[in-house]
Design a protein that fits this description.
Alpha-Beta Plaits, 2 helices, 4 strands, about 30% helix
Amino acid sequence: MVEVFITNIDEAKQVKRTTSLLKANFADLRFNLDLDDSKQGTHFPCRHTVLRAEGKAIDAQSILEAVNRLGYRCEILEDKICN
């Protein structure tokens, strides 16, 4: 199972901090946070980074809350077109 989120994380040190926390709290999941999806000049949610969680059972709400507690915005990726 894979769940895809968008975040407003935009720096490598924030990626490291966030993925370390997620791996510690959700040891049975694998995480990938990709800064390359961020587009300069637009605002969240269209300027975002992609956070992927992969594993057998994913508690999306707990992941959202964990990322939000770090001070970042995090939402489940919806199908939408951004200009």
